[in-house]
Structures are given as C-alpha cells and as structure tokens.
Amino acid sequence: xxxxxxxxxxxxxxxxxxxxxxxxxxxxxxxxxxxxxxxxxxxxxxxxxxxxxxxxxxxxxxxxxxxxx
Length: 69
Known about the structure:
Elements: H1 3-13, H2 18-31, H3 37-50, H4 53-66
C-alpha cells in the first residue's frame, strides 16, 4: 500500500469519534467494495501499533477462530 494512501485515509478520519468509526467500518463491510479494504487496513495498522501484547494476542486468537476450517 502506498504511503500516500495511508496519509489520505488518516487525514479523512482525523477527529472522528468512536460512533463515526463504527459507522465507517459498518458501511465498508455492508458495501463489500474492494476499494474500501485499504481504509480498513489502515485502521487495523494504526490500532496494532498502539495495542499492547495482550490486546494483540486476544485479537489474533479471535481472528484465527473466524478462519477455522
């Protein structure tokens, strides 16, 4: 992903509150459009960088459960 995309997405959501982020994520999932995936990736990357090891472990456990055969 190009760094300019990260900057643009970050600039577009700067100052948003939790409800707005929830709306953004719900809308992106409901639409199912591939061009929205980079935005969700930027959200995940930003969260991951600030999460502690326990939060990361809990997240990856839950994520792995979603992809069990």
